[in-house]
Every structure is written in C-alpha cells, then in structure tokens.
Amino acid sequence: MEMMVIRTSALFLAASLVLSACGQAEKNSPAPSGAESENNTAPNETNQAPSSDKENKDSSDALDPSDTSNKTSTEPERSEDTGKEKDNSDNTQAEETPAAPQYYMNKVYNIVPNDEAAEKKIVLLTFDDGPKDEKMINGLIDTLDKHKAKAIFFVNGYRVKQNPELLKLIHERGQIIGNHSWDHIDLKKESKATAKKQIEDVQKIVMDTIGEKPKFFRPPFGSGGDYVKQVVSENNMLFMTWSNGSLDWESQSRNNPEAVINNVMEQLHPGSNILMHELPWTVEALDTLLTKLEKKGYSFVDPQNIELKTK
Ligand SMILES: [Zn+2]
Questions:
Q1: pLDDT score of 141
Q2: N or C: which terminus of the chain carries fewer CB neighbours within 10 A?
C-alpha cells in the first residue's frame, strides 16, 4: 500500500514535469507537426477522465493552430451528430485478445503484469504521427530489431493515404500499427460524427492496406473524452495516452538526441508507456536509449502481449 502511494506520488511529480514541459510545446517547435503538445493529457489525471476534463480544456496552452497545417483535403466532411449508434461500450473485445496476455494497461496508462511472476521492469515503446519517411522508419525498426523490441506506430490516416507503402513496411517488418486519427485534430472539439469518422476511417484504410485493423488508439494531444473512448471501444481498440513523454516534439529536443534520452530516463518507471515520434533526432537517439534502458534492467513489452482492456 505504501509502495503504491509512493509510486503514485512519484508519478504525479513526473507527470507534473511532463505537463509543465508540454505546456510550451509546439509554440517554439515548428517541426513535429503532430506532436502531442497538449497539456490536457496528464497521465495521472486519468482517474478524472483526462480527456473530458474541462480544466484541461481551458488551458491557455490550447492547440497550436499550426498543428492542423498537415490536414489535407481528405478531412472527413462534417455532418450532423448522429449520436450513439451502438451501445456496447462496455463490451470490450475479449475474443480478440491474444491468448492470456501477460500484461494490461492501468488507468494511468502504465503497463502492468497480470501475473506477479511476470517482469515488472518493462516499458512500452510508441512512435506517433507517421508514416512519413522510409529512411526514418527503417532506422527506427533496425534499432528495434537490434534490441528485439516491438513498438506501436500510431499513424494518421492522411499520412497512410499519402504513403501506403510505408504502412506496409512497418507492418511487414513486424511492428504494430496503432490508430492516431485521420487528421491529427483535437477530437474532443469535434462533433461526435466527425470524431467517429476520424477514428473509423483509419481503421478502414489500415485494414485495406495491410489486411488487419489497429488494436490500439491514441488520441492526438492525448485529448479524447468519453465519446471517443466509446467509439474506440466499439472498434475493439485499447485507448491510451502515455505515461512517459520523451518531449522529442519540443524545441529543446530538436536535433538533440541526448535531450530525448534524458527526458525518458528522468521519467523512467516500471511500466512506462513511452511517447516518441517519427523524428530524425529520435531515430538517432533510439539505440542509445534502448541500451540505457536495458542496462537499468528494463525490457520491452510486446504490444501484442497487452490486454485490450484497461483495468
Ligand atoms: Zn500525435
């Protein structure tokens, strides 16, 4: 019990650091178009439903308008809110869960063993906002392969449409595809119909491209909300933000792999759900980062070994 309290406090501290750092993200950072700059994603506020938290929404560090610059003409058309069409939000996908996954994701997006005997010192590796560039993707996956690691690549639909061959590349090299919405917009600010389309169009294009649908969903900016969570559940995906932000999207990290490594190591805790992006300095940082994690006794959880239901 005390351990829990201590860990929770430590997490809160870490999250506060992430938050304060994230607050100024993007403004000074032109590059990572889709970076999760928002501060409405405090991993530790999950119990208060971070994505529907008004306080967060009112933050002065609202979305950087430039972040939508990547939107393409493929943005789903808006239509009247059709409301709930299905009502099975609690009916998550036991059937599609791989046989007896050893891990699950808790309410603060950490990965936790189901079985006491399983290794606790694990991290989940994730890369958002692709697929953009073959060289970067191969660079990331070469390093993942070297460390026998699997990661989730959270992709945007408009990028998949632009680069379907890159989605195939990620999949064929054995890495896991996640859904990061079509346009990388703040889904909480959209109508239900638009939010649903943003999510489901990605399921479709990924299915059409690689023959299977994503099982993981991460909302842009960590901004989801109850309706988004419902749609994600209806689509048999596990909703997550993150619990260890590499801050690779921040200006301080630009061309600075060392900063990316340090940011992750400073927030490191068992079960860390590490948010990174498909960015050159992250590609450059990855081998050293994974080596450092291994030296600290950490290994890399296979996303396919995580239950698709939060506990
Ligand atoms: Zn993103």
A1: 98
A2: N
